[in-house]
Amino acid sequence: MFAARIARMPVDQRPLAIFLMGPTASGKTALAQALADRFDVGLVSVDSALVYRGLDVGAAKPDAATLSRYPHRLIDIRDPAQAYSAADFRADALDAMGEVRGEGKTPLLVGGTGLYFHALQYGLSRLPEADAALRAQLSAQAEREGWTALHARLAVLDPAAAARIGVNDTQRIQRALEVIALTGEPLSAQQTGARAPFAYRVLKIALLPDDRVLLHERIGQRLDIMFAQGFVAEVERLRARGDLGADLPAVRAVGYRQVWQHLAGDFDLTEARRRALFATRQLAKRQITWLRSDYDAIAVDPFGNASVAEAERLVAAFLAPARG
């Protein structure tokens, strides 16, 4: 069945690439390693937290031994004080994919940041650069009124954008309102239009668990391990730098935001864990919704007994024409 579906893909001469996508805690890293053991692939991380140095425990970053055996491009490439946009990722990812091909390998992009995958494959509109003063103003408004109020404002100014941006997705709410303020036009109107075809022919594997309860259990177990391994101490070190604030994308990452607020005295550690667990489950829900909307992706249950074998069959069928 899998080989037949691969065979029906349009034949073209573009180089090949593999997207391994899935919600948080679905086992993407372990599966990527299994595929790297069997196939001649080069791993490229697609994760908005793993780009930052110092975000290790709370971001579930592979440890040094794992990265030594299975090198991932686009991990630890930014300081947490620096912003990193989807446009930055697209440029870096295309460079990384070119490097992988230069080594005679197939790029295997693995991660859960849907915005990055979308930007890579479909490109980005020519939107204005970030405006620090305007972002500070929007952040201040959010502090006073709450992000729900800003999302409601976005729904009035740009209903299409608000419909696809979650009420808890503060970074994208801020960006949409910023673009509207800078250009006077809705973000959604500026993101339409034809774009050049992607330079690669892509196999998309989506890790979509049949049992959502099991995914939630894994999220809770992994969060407990993070706290046991020093998550709070990691955030304490980040705060001790003195140059990081709660408005930075690195600090707004799921889990980091809640522990940061705990250390600021907003609530106790038990409440921080509860909020982090809720936020992570909400993130997984959004990721699954996005993956189910990608009709080009082939779903694999990561918790099934044959998940690795299924993924290997897909990759083998996809790469076979290149070898033959």
CATH architecture of the largest domain: 3-Layer(aba) Sandwich
What letter string, H or E per element, gives the SSE order? HEHEHEHEHHHHHHEHHHHEH
Number of domains: 2
Mean pLDDT: 91
The helix content is 40-55%
Structural class: alpha/beta
Spatial order of the strands forming the largest sheet: 3-2-4-1-5-6
**CATH topology-level fold name of the largest domain:** Rossmann fold
Net shape: globular
Specify the CATH homologous superfamily of the largest domain. P-loop containing nucleotide triphosphate hydrolases
The unreliable regions are: none
Report the total helices. 15
CATH class of the largest domain: Alpha Beta
Question: What's the β-strand tally?
Answer: 6
Cα radius of gyration in angstroms: 20 Å
| C-alpha termini separation | 20 Å
Strand content: 5-15%
Largest sheet: 6 strands, parallel
Quick summary of this structure?
This protein is 54% helix and 9% strand. The chain is of the alpha/beta class and 324 residues long.
Describe the 3D structure:
This protein has about 325 residues and is α/β, with parallel strands linked by helices. The mean pLDDT is about 90. It has 15 helices and six strands. It has a six-stranded parallel beta sheet, with helices on both faces. It is globular and about 55 Å long. The chain folds into two domains: about 250 residues, Rossmann fold (3-Layer(aba) Sandwich); about 60 residues, Histone, subunit A, CATH 1.10.20. Strand 2, helix 3 and strand 3 form a beta-alpha-beta unit.
